[in-house]
Amino acid sequence: MFRAASLLALSALAAPASPPIGDRWELAQLTIRQRTMVRVPRMAPPAPPRPVEWVEKKGPRCVPVGELAGALVSERDRLDLVLRGGKRVRALLEDDCRGLDFVRGFYLKPSADGMICADRDLIRTRYGTKCPIDGFRRLEVKR
Predict the structure, then answer these.
(1) Where are the domains of the chain?
(2) Is 139 helix (H, G, I), strand (E, B) or coil?
(3) In terms of DSSP bridges, do strands 62-64 and 115-117 run parallel, antiparallel, or are they unpaired?
(4) In this structure, are residues 112 and 121 in contact, taking their beta carbons and an 8 Å threshold?
(5) Looking at per-residue confidence, does 13 or 36 come out higher?
């Protein structure tokens, strides 16, 4: 705003006054507006990500409860545990764990050592089913 007013004042000083028309002077109003426009080019949509294929490797006997970040049901007898840092471990369940696939969430009761171990602990679904953990497999991205 200050810049526009100073330009207007400078232009009035530099330009000669318009000659009078009869008894009056011709006045004009000058409005300066500034707009900033940024041109953003349109890009092609990104290609959809390739589905990730996981390969099972020998896994640990126990998983620290404090490392769990989330879980995904891969099959009725398999539960993929997502650990902090992005690593994954698949819990192999002894039986067909009914209720795990259609009820959100499940319960784990860790032992005093703060670990969830195979052949010792179990997963409880919110449906009421108890699913013993048979083992763990480490998951890696297939290359």
Answers:
(1) 54-141
(2) strand
(3) antiparallel
(4) no
(5) 36
